[in-house]
Write the structure tokens for this entry.
Amino acid sequence: MISLNDTTMRLLLAAVVVLPLLGAGAALLPAPPGLRGPGGRDRDVLRHGVTVTGAVLVLTLLLAAGFDHDRPADIQAESDLRWIPALDVRLHLGVDGISLPLLVLTALLTFLCALHTYFRPPQGPDAPGPIPFVALLLLLEAGTLATFAALDLVLFFLAFETVLIPMYFLIARWGGAERAAAAWKFILYTVVGSVVMLLGLLLIGVRGGTFDMVALAEANGAGLSHTTQLLAVLAIGLGLAVKTPMWPLHSWLPDAHTAAPTTGSVLLAGVLLKMGTYGLVRIALPIAPEGMHTFAPYLGAFAAAGIVYGSLACLALVRQGAGGDLKRLIAYSSVGHMGFVLLGIATLTRGGVNGALFANVAHGLITGLLFFLVGALKERVGTTDLDRLTNVTLYARSPRFGGLLAFTAIASLGLPGLAGFWGELLAMLGAFHPADGLSRPAFLIYLALAGLGTLLTAAYLLLVVRRVCMGDARDEPLQDLRAPEYAAFAPLAVLTVLAGLWPAVLLDLTNPAVAALLPGVAR
Amino acid sequence: MNLTQNVDWAVVAPPLIAAVTAVVVLIADLFLPAARRPLLGWLAAGGLALAAVALLPLRDGDRTTFCLADDPALCAYTADRFAVIVQLLVLGGAFLAALLSIPETADDDIPGGEFWFLLLSSASGAALLPAARDLATLIIALEVTTLPAYALVGLRRGSRTGPEAALKFFLTSVTATAVALLGVSFVYAAGGSLFFAELATALPGGDPQLATLAEAGVALTLVGFAFKAAAVPFHFWVPETYLGAPLPVAGYLSVVGKAAGLAGLALVTTLAFPGYGDLWGPALGLLAGLTMTVGNAAALRTDPDAPHSAVRLLAWSSVGQAGYLLVPLAAAAYTDHGEALGATVAYALMYAAVNLGAFAVVAQVARRHSERRLSDFRGLYARRPLSALALAFFLLCLAGLPPGVVGLFAKVAVFEAAVDGGLGVLAVVMAINVAIALFYYLRWTALLFRAPPEPAPAGPATAAPVAVAAPLTGAIGLAAAAALAFSGAPQLILTFVSTSLI
């Protein structure tokens, strides 16, 4: 779109990663005299959060504009500096067609969260003020952006771990009921997963002779013995599967979502879960193809089980009298949606992996929006308990809000024309014709299960819409969407429609890059 | 046989300066008026700093002394890079411990002159130890390190737990030394020399009738050092000793004492008995796995409301950390010795800085809350934001989570050594332990940022404001500066991983 020279691109990407880190440190310091505004230090720091995340968003958009869309398979904006020669760790950053959409998604969601926080400062029973909140939010953004930009295995791991502490404190300090236990569960699951992943990464690094992801991907498994690849994929896959989360390692997610504050939920669902599937595509797929090939049928089986399990759990929650929580329901629906992503990856076909990457971004947009809306609903009605949400009758009392909620639910169930559709369709098409050497009957069964899952998903989401939006108006009108809420929700809704109507925006970026990751695969 | 040896005084300066300062302090104590006694602490700290500065000319790591006149290649004291780095670690650690002790000795219940003399003597032994290149020098250095430590543990007047802890420490430690000496005598009988270089070539081999004796000697020597390094199952003296000792002494033992034991272990395994790798490799691997598991499990069970729980937690966590430190030593049996040792040295440098930093913050909090409970730390951020941030950073470094980047990379180096040596099972055990340890480190970290407890009804003890002790603040600042520098540029300490140290 616009042409920027190489140095500018490199500096842009470095700034995208470093700026939130500096911002996090700066948030703890008092504001300089020129930047002090009305409302005291708390407003200053909230404004600081919006400014920094906004600047990062502008930079990522510039990066996307400067990205050479004619060769998305190549690593662009690449910088490669020595950092720790002793361990052969390099500050190796770059973007390609796989990571660029995720970078933009992360910057966008974090900016919207900061905006949301500016108008709705975080509250909680014994929550500290907004200063640590903004610092943690920015640290979280730095970690996620670095994860998607890192091209060195150890750097990737460092960035992957960086998000743990901020997310822990976001849940534990600003969360709702049961927040301490949920925060513990979140961090213990992910830490156990990630230390196992570290062993796998080190195994690759030691046996492959380098931690450089580009060089390892180019080697495509050459130089790694079959056993090494099996062990590495097992260890790395386990760590990433906890993060994704893959059934049956998902049980931390519903608790974390239920307890987390709105911004925490949005970022957890919209960005953090993506780190798991991104790692599978970026590391396991190209670096240890034989290991992936061996484990793909099992991954597919767990994915299909997750799709059905997630939707059945949601159906159970939505029943009248089950005492289900709307946030918990969306968390379980995430388990199902991420199951589609995993199924797409497990097919090891271009179509399937493209579908997985598309579904990744779509889930980030839609579920991010859903969590925003549930947060807004809780502000208005005071609860997210599904039993007490009966006959809220949003359509009658606050029509725009109700309409947007219904729109998002329908996008989530995968209506054609909206973002949720393409990714799941491509993943299922991939399962219809999995890569050579994978058992087709097995994948056909997974396909059938996934199809059942889409039906069940439609069922529970429509039930939710009926429960929350429809009914006879009895009470006085509720507060409809306000201007700040439009500002926070509209970009996500617009992008959901855009990605649904014009999927080529994303697929043109990912397809050549996926083809480069899967050499020798025709479909 | 020519018994005269040329002594290069510059090479032995670091331990020598510490020893001379010890004597100067002891004599000065006799002549100084009571009001001037606090000067002794600064004198001791200055001596330690000076000893550390004396390492500067040795940094190339190619100087030797106390060599045999007949055979100049055989030296009892070698200042190679390993020795210089470990000396820097022990002298720096002793310096920080001295800073912690200055406010402690200002109270009347610890006799200042004796305390500083003992601390400096122990530090001089610990500085001598990593440079020792024959078994006799090594054992003497180890005893010079530990003998004053018994007295340090029990030095506080009117303490009930101190003497008991000191006695327990003394008895186990003397037993360990006796066992090690027996092992050394067996090795001498089989190998015919005390120099590491000669033993490495003579053993295994030689008289087949003496092979069993030699193996028994190697095993017994290792047991002796495992005691000093507090490796499980030779660790039972640790919790009581740490609880009974004055806090700075516990910090000193957890870093300098441990470093001395581990350096000795590294020296005897890789330099003296490289031929017995199949014997000590699996043994050290087993010790490492047991040590980290037992240490972390016990730390996990620490009750936050019990008295002294903060120190108890640090004591058990130091046992757990010793397990990680042993991993590269075990891996050294299967790989290039020097590189695996580098991981231990790098990890030990990180550990020394952040563990003493954590002890410093505990000492600062203990000035107000003498019970040293973990629950006293609740809401520390509201009272002392900088101390709380520093302690959080130290704990995250120990746990190995960002933003404690250096802790993470030190663990990566240890993991890499294990994977490189083919110790996959040990790596998995360590991975589980890292996750367990995270629980208690993070629980403590989270406590710092909780809302402060309701103010207790003001008793006479809590009413008086406690003055900030400048040396404590300085120690926290130094440790934090080191940990931050290491985190920004991990290459500073990880450079030892890629180079051969010995």
About this structure: Chain B has two domains: 1-272, 286-452+467-502. The longest strand of chain B covers residues 62-67.
